[in-house]
Amino acid sequence: MQIHFYKYQGTGNDFVIVDNRSGEYSGLTTEQIEHLCDRRFGIGADGLMMLENEDGYDFRMKYHNSDGREGSMCGNGGRCLTAFARNMGIKGDTLRFIASDGEHDAKFRDNGWVELKMKDVDQVEVGNNYFYLNTGSPHFVRFVTDIQEVDVYEEGRGIRYNERFAAVGTNVNFVQETDQGIFVRTYERGVEDETFSCGTGVTAAALTAAPGEAGQYAIPVETLGGHLEVRYLRTGERSFEDIWLCGPATPVFEGNIKI
To answer: Which residues make up the annotated site Could be important to modulate the pK values of the two catalytic cysteine residues (predicted)?
Structure first.
């Protein structure tokens, strides 16, 4: 099979993207997708996305983790696929698409940033030195005092594969408060390693970083791959609405590969 692909990245979270509106890539297997995402033997990416048709929406987002398995919502991926959709000729100031966790709206800033509306959150588990919530994907959040000293791979893997999470998995975020906002590092399930950025993880970290009072918040976020912003309305102690993940989404290259 000959595949024409595109490579996009959002704060270092990188993706192989294919235009599957004709259905020609629907037969890709888990093994083939894993090969395409392999950084030594394939194109190399944290995941693969397909742009697909869906009645009533501008497009459907189909996302696979780098292990080839279909994944849950990916925030940076959603922003990158929106930028790709516009480059493929899908017009509109706001694009609406459907993903694994439901509907999403996406808007464009003049500086090239993409703003992605995330799902509302009405449940946050607060434990001993951690938070656990679902922002389209499940996230374990732990605040630390020196994020550069954290062994994200070892500590994140230990939580992801512990007795509670081993069967289904969770993403694990380590967060440090800064003068400007927060710094986030994430171990991602499906990738099974630290990534340069994780959109749903950044969102989870920002929701748990703000004070407990209800109101509007805009949290600047730094990741290994660059700067993001999360805006939201806190409606209660553990409930959040009108959540927007904002940041860059840029093309890297395109090409052809035979598999």
So the answer is: 139, 188
pLDDT in tens, 91-121: 999 999 999 999 999 999 999 899 999 999 9
Structure-block tokens of residue 2? 């000959």
CB count within 10 Å of CB 128 equals 4
Residue 70 CA to residue 65 CA, distance in Å, equals 6
Given a contact cutoff of 8 angstroms between Cβ atoms, the answer to whether 77 and 48 are in contact is no
Q: Is 75 annotated as a binding residue?
A: yes
Considering the four listed CATH numbers 2.70.150.10, 1.10.10.10, 3.40.190.10, 3.10.310.10, the one that applies to the domain covering 2-108+249-258 is 3.10.310.10
Residue 246 annotated among the catalytic residues of the structure = no
Superfamily of domain 124-248: Diaminopimelate Epimerase; Chain A, domain 1 (3.10.310.10)
Annotation-wise, does 171 bind a ligand? yes
Is 199 annotated in a binding site? The answer is yes
pTM above 0.90, yes or no: yes
Q: Which residue out of 37, 74, 80, 246 is catalytically annotated?
A: 74
